[in-house]
C-alpha cells in the first residue's frame, strides 16, 4: 500500500489531503510570507539553525509573528519518520505566512500559518555534477528589499528559471538594477579568481545558507569567501564558477551565455568536501 504523505499544519501532523488553508490566507493573496528549503540526510536536517535564523530575521523585518519556541528538531524528526525519510535524502520545506488578516500593510496579531513538508530528494547525478550547468543572464534586472528574504513572492525567479530552461540552460543569473551580478534564480554564485574565492556583493540577493556555511568552512582552512561587487566582465575572468543552494550543494557552471567556463574538478571536489564536512559537525 502506498504510504500517505504527512505534513505539519500549525500544531498538527496530518495527512497531506487534510492540510487545508483558508483561501483568505495572505500567503495566497499577497505572497505575504517566507519559506526555507533544507536538505536532510538519514533523518537529520542540515543547517537547521541557520535556516531558522534567516526565517526569524525575515519574519521580524516584516512584523510577522514567528513561533520561535517550537521543538523544531522533534517536529522535523517526526515528520521525516512519518514519511519514511529517516533514511536517504529528503527536502524539507518550512513555510510561514501571516495567516488571515484584512488590513493592507503588515498587520500584527494575525495568527500565522506554518506548514512543513518532507519529501524524497533526488540530487543531480554524478555525471551532471561533472559536466556542470550552462547558465544564462536573465535580461530583467531586480532590485528590491524583498530579494534579501526568501519570500513567497517567487514569480520573478520562476520566470528567470524558465527563461534559462527555454534556452537550454539550467539556471538564470539575476542582475541588480545597476547591471552588477547578483545571484542565481534559486542559487547563490561562487567564483574563483586569481586563486581566491568570491561571491557577488549585491544589495538584493538572498543571504544564502550554503555560501555562509562554505565561507565558514573555508575560514577554518585559512581561506576565505569574500563578497565583492561583481560585473559580468569580472565573471568572464573567473577561473571557475559555481551555483549553490541547500538542496544540491555546489554545482559547477559549464557555460555563461554560451561562452564556455573552465571546469575545475579538483576545486569543485574540494569545495563540496568543505560543505560536507560542515554538515557533519
Ligand atoms: C534566490 C535564491 N538565491 C539563493 C539561494 C540559495 O540559498 P540557500 O543556500 O540558503 O539554499 C536560493 C535558494 O533556493 C534562492 O532561492
Tell me the strand percentage band. Answer: 25-35%
Bound molecules: pyridoxal-5'-phosphate
Number of helices: 8
Give the topology string: H per helix, E per strand.
EEHEEHHEEHEHEEEEHEHEEEH
Instruction: Give the strand tally.
Output: 15
Overall helicity: 25-40%
- Largest sheet features: 9 strands, mixed
Please identify the structural class as seen in this structure: alpha+beta
Distance between the termini: 37 Å
Look at the structure and give the mean pLDDT. Answer: 96
Output the keywords.
281 residues, alpha+beta, six-stranded antiparallel sheet, 15 strands, 29% strand, binds pyridoxal-5'-phosphate
Structure characterization notes:
The protein is an alpha+beta fold. The protein has 8 helices and 15 strands. It has helices at 26-30, 48-61, 72-82, 126-131, 155-166, 209-220, 232-236, 265-280; strands spanning 6-9, 12-15, 33-41, 44-45, 89-97, 113-120, 133-137, 171-175, 181-184, 188-193, 196-200, 225-228, 240-245, 249-256, 259-260. A hairpin with a 2-residue loop joins strand 10 (188-193) and strand 11. It is globular. The site of pyridoxal-5'-phosphate has 13 residues, from helix 6 and strand 13. Pyridoxal-5'-phosphate binds next to helix 6 and strand 13.
Topology, pairings included?
Layout: E1 6-9, E2 12-15, H1 26-30, E3 33-41, E4 44-45, H2 48-61, H3 72-82, E5 89-97, E6 113-120, H4 126-131, E7 133-137, H5 155-166, E8 171-175, E9 181-184, E10 188-193, E11 196-200, H6 209-220, E12 225-228, H7 232-236, E13 240-245, E14 249-256, E15 259-260, H8 265-280
Parallel strand pairs: 7-8, 7-14, 11-12
Antiparallel strand pairs: 1-2, 1-6, 3-4, 3-5, 5-6, 8-9, 10-11, 10-13, 13-14, 14-15
Helix pairs in contact: 6-8
The structure holds pyridoxal-5'-phosphate.
The site of pyridoxal-5'-phosphate has 13 residues, from helix 6 and strand 13.
